[in-house]
Amino acid sequence: MTGLDDVLPPRPYPAAIYTGSTGEATATIRRASTPPEVVYPSGNSCEYLARGEDTGGHFGLLKWNFGGAPGQSEPHLHRTFSESFFLLSGSIQFFDGTSWSDAAPGDFVHVPPGGVHGYQNVSGAPASMLVLFTPGAPREAYFESLRAMAEGSLALTDDEKASFFIAHDNVFV
Fold first, then answer.
1. How far apart are CA 95 and CA 73, in angstroms?
2. φ, ψ at 163 (rounded to 5°)
3. If 117 and its partner were Cys, which of 23, 111, 135, 157 is the partner (CB 3.0–4.6 Å)?
4. Has residue 14 got a pLDDT over 60?
């Protein structure tokens, strides 16, 4: 016989965020035909699927598209948010804090705050992945500034670069 303990969730749900009784027409749709918000000289691009400011700070979600050129995110950590990756297409390598390993479509990586991680496309072929960060940190200025640096329209001294990365919670190891 099933008791109440068998049907209750193992931990309580969070406190209600929406307290209305009828619901609201607030869903948003981002069409697949929407061009990427950020395109890098390398051919990589970034699509903002859900900005932290649009989710009440709960999460941010972007789609990262690797062009065919090799590229990587050096091993680093974040102190204020977790980051999760879901590989959609192609082949990339993830760094888990100790070693690099190949990832294929459908593979998932979760990195809690403080977890050392990195990723790289060494295949020479396009690849794409979803990147979820929680809570929804304001990452857009980070990606847009990286593009400006890559294009040469934003030149920073070494000290300014160090301050930039710290301000955007990227701690390279």
1. 9
2. -65, -40
3. 111
4. yes
For residues 5 and 109, give the distance between their C-alpha atoms in angstroms, rounded to a whole number: 32
Global pTM value: 0.90
d(CA 1, CA 4): 10
Report how far residue 69's alpha carbon sits from residue 73's, in angstroms, rounded to the nearest whole number.
13
Which segments of the chain does DSSP mark as H helices, in order?
4-7, 140-151, 158-167
Burial of 173 (0-12, 13-18, 19+ CB in 10 A): exposed
* Residue 47 contacts residue 88 (beta carbons within 8 Å): no
SS3 letters across 68-100:
CCCEEEEEEECCCCEEEEEEEECCEEEECCCCE
Check: CB of residue 102 under 8 Å from CB of residue 155.
no
* Torsion from C-alpha of 147, 144, 94, 96, nearest 10 degrees: 130
In this predicted model, what pLDDT tens digit does every residue of 86-115 receive, in sequence order? 999 999 999 999 999 999 999 999 999 999
Instruction: Give the 3-state secondary structure of residue 20.
Output: coil
Report d(CA 128, CA 87) in Å as an integer: 6
